[in-house]
Amino acid sequence: ELSLTAASKQKSWEEVKEMSRHGISFGSHTNSHPVLSVISEKEAQIEIAGSKKVIEEQTQKLVNTFAYPYGKVQDYNRDYIFKILKNEGFKYACSTNKGSEEFPLENPLELKRKGVSAYPYLFL
Question: What is the pTM of this model?
Answer without folding.
Answer: 0.84
